[in-house]
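Annotators were shown the component list below and the corresponding predicted structure, then asked to write short factual statements about the assembly.
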Amino acid sequence: MNDDQLDAIFAKARSAPPETGGLEFGFETRLMAQIRGMQSESEGWLGWSWRLTPWFAALAVCVLGAGLLVLPEIESVLDLGSEHYVAMVEYFTGESL
Amino acid sequence: MDAAASDETLVRSTLEGDESAFAELVRRHKGRILALCGNLARCAADIDDLAQEVFLRAWRNLRQFRADAPFEHWLARIATRACYDHIRRQKPEPIPIEDLPLPAPDDSNASEARDWIRWAMAKLSAEDRLVIALLELEERSVRDVAAMTGWSESNVKVRAFRARQGMKARLESAMGKSKGTI
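Structure shown to annotators:
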């Protein structure tokens, strides 16, 4: 087969474009319905996230309170840790800090 | 919505929240987009899904439209990208030759010729199919295809040459056979 023969087949194929007339009917209506569905879905999630805000605020207060309660213990552990760290550095470097 | 408004005006109205402006844009351009999708999708349901996907992408990215080029060109680039994604996702599905019209490709009528073209394109890579559909079925220029795909003009030419060679070989083999799967 040569290029001219292939071009002739392409030309014939172009003269019978795919039938899409039926698909055009109501196309934009279906599309806009899909867009509206997507919009309401995303608005739904946004609404839910706003409604959950008080619960998240309460959770944050609880976490903060718990943190304040255990903070002194953590500080004492850290102090102990820093003493050990200074001793270790002095031992390895031979210098007193 | 004013049917005489320019595409750019309709885009601005859509961004300001006027849904009917986007519906008017869709009404104006759906014919060309459906035709492009029809050259690459396998069945009517796929064509419809693909065209809907094109306009959904356009709607989501409408803020990125700069009016430095016509809306149609911007939409054609989105459509090309969506078609390319679609044919890359498709599993290769060889069409048995007995499912094709019997007249040889060069003796076929218009709709038979389209079936032969579809059959010969089935074994091409996604990139080559896209190039052939745009160049030969949509009759776009090499420059247009390069702009729509983002590939260089020489890349488009090389792909078109290779795809045509593959299609010629396949159609030539079909011309000598009557039945059986190739």
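Statements collected:
1. The longest helix of chain B spans residues 153-175.
2. The CA atoms of residues 30 and 151 of chain B lie 25 Å apart.
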